[in-house]
Specification:
about 450 residues, alpha/beta, 7-stranded mixed beta sheet, 21 strands, globular, binds flavin-adenine dinucleotide
């Protein structure tokens, strides 16, 4: 039995941040992580030549002040995403090359529909109060329908519908019919709206840390030292009047309070004793993850750049739904990233490895030419089958969940407090949101104890 002030469960960015801030405030802390590595839904692999692959979360953008502050704290610089050249959109088998964010060579009808769709979503996002989306004027109406249904009813062009479905519903790595419209507006709104979500320059894919996300999370872990315990999946949290007992494989920790910083999709894998209040327990049952595969393909150079292409391409429903240039700051070697989401990712998951690789490379050859057929390495990370993530990229709310159970997202249950990107009112779903949630939870536990101590003195 180890005795500390606070026990944090899960060493993704949320848990790492909570533990770091508590330690910096002079509190003793134990951070228990189920995997034999830290980083959670971020996972950086450094290659022998010093280049790196981010197998999970990678990009950052303006407004994400807390990840930037963390990078400053540990001296990790950023580098800008390569955006020079045309992007490509493949709709109904036809390729459209374009600059900027709108593929103007699509029919005027499709482009107008797409533009109106994005503008309407942007407008709706602005009406959502981030801290309490269930209090939005049209919350009940928007939580009754799925994002897919809204797209279907508000987009008359089939091409625009497919593009919106991929760009917006794709974020939740599920079919549009699985996600509540209110949740999508809340999540996108927490970052400033759909234009931010889908943009490179000035948007969510504006930059990356030099060395990848690992350069940041490894620095936090170094400061935490022996407070971090790997390969300790937490099985049970028992709370009583004085504190909590957190039971993990091979280690039991006694603390005043616990911060649980694991994805909502798997939060019910821990036994809480006594049972959690019904609404919180039901929230855990109702926030599933999605399906996403991120593939990093190494070439000897980023050959697409010489053809005037930036590397970004999108093909709704294809085995390579999205591609993006994922080179390091030196552009050596060439790294192409493929992200396949939702139903397409589940189809890929059902294939055997060789067929999956052939399907993805075939798509790249079609888009970027024969040179795509000569990869040096092919790294795939299937988040769909990661036990300790419960899918990716984030847990999402189906219809009816936010208005009924959303209020429990951040509300502590006695001595058990909650962190994790899904609990952040700002930049929810991003790494920045995870950091914010960790800082909020760290402040929450110390404030609760200070208040309790004051009451005892009185
Ligand atoms: C493919 C992909 C691409 C993404 N791209 C981006 C991007 O470009 N930019 C961006 O900002 N965000 C991106 N994201 C989202 C981002 O990665 C997440 O928002 C963020 O990493 C979540 O951090 P977290 O700490 O809340 O949760 P997690 O990172 O999931 O951390 C939770 C931790 O808890 C551990 N755990 C689980 N169960 C237990 C248990 N019982 N006991 C102990 N430990 C447990 C897990 O192993 C994990 O380490 C992406 C995600 C994916 C999957």
């Amino acid at each position: 039995m180890s005795d500390v002030d606070y026990c944090v469960v899960g060493a993704g960015f949320a848990g790492l941040t909570a533990a770091l801030r508590l330690k910096q405030a002079g509190r003793s802390v134990a951070l228990l992580e189920a995997r034999d590595r830290i980083g959670g839904r971020t996972f950086t692999v450094t290659r022998d030549d010093g280049s790196w692959i981010d197998r999970g979360g990678a990009w950052i953008g303006p407004g994400q002040d807390r990840i930037y502050a963390m990078m400053d704290e540990f001296g990790v610089p950023e580098y800008k995403q390569h955006n020079d050249g045309d992007a490509m959109m493949i709709v109904d088998g036809k390729k459209h090359r374009y600059g900027g964010t709108i593929p103007w060579s699509m029919s005027a009808w499709a482009v107008t529909n797409l533009g109106i769709g994005l503008m309407s979503i942007e407008k709706m996002c602005k009406t959502i109060p981030g801290e309490a989306p269930w209090e939005a004027k049209r919350a009940a109406e928007w939580d009754r329908i799925s994002l897919g249904e809204w797209i279907e009813n508000n987009t008359m062009s089939k091409a625009a519908r497919e593009m919106l479905d991929m760009a917006i519903a794709g974020v939740y790595t599920s079919a549009g019919s699985e996600t509540s419209l209110l949740w999508a507006l809340t999540q996108m709104g927490s970052g400033g709206g759909p234009t931010f979500v889908i943009s490179g320059k000035g948007g969510a894919q504006d930059a990356r840390p030099v060395g990848g996300m690992g350069a940041v999370y490894r620095s936090i872990a170094a400061e935490l030292g022996d407070a971090l315990h790997l390969s300790r999946p937490v099985r049970q949290i028992t709370q009583d009047g004085d504190g909590v007992t957190v039971a993990a494989d091979g280690l039991t920790v006694r603390a005043r309070r616990a911060i649980v910083a694991i994805p909502l999709a798997i939060a019910s894998s821990i036994v809480y004793e006594p049972m959690l209040p019904v609404d919180r327990a039901f929230l855990h049952q109702r926030m599933p993850g999605g399906a996403v595969i991120k593939i990093s393909i190494i070439y000897d150079e980023p050959f697409w750049r010489a053809d005037g292409l930036c590397g970004q391409s999108a093909a709704p429903g294809s085995p390579a739904t999205l591609t993006i240039d994922a080179c390091t700051n030196t552009a050596d070697p060439g790294i192409m990233c493929v992200i396949t989401e939702g139903p397409a990712a589940r189809r890929l998951t059902r294939m055997d490895e060789a067929d999956r690789k052939a399907a993805v490379i075939g798509e790249l050859v079609d888009r970027f030419g024969a040179k795509a057929n000569a990869p040096l390495e092919f790294h795939e990370q299937n988040w769909t089958t990661e036990r300790y993530s419960g899918g990716g990229m984030i847990s999402h709310a189906p219809t009816g969940v936010l208005t009924e159970f959303g209020y429990t997202l951040r509300e502590p249950c006695g001595r058990v407090h909650w962190a994790g990107t899904e609990s952040s009112a700002v930049m929810c779903g991003w790494i920045d949101g995870a950091i914010r949630s960790g800082e909020r939870a760290a402040a929450e536990v110390t404030t609760a104890d200070t208040a309790a101590a004051a009451t005892t003195r009185v």
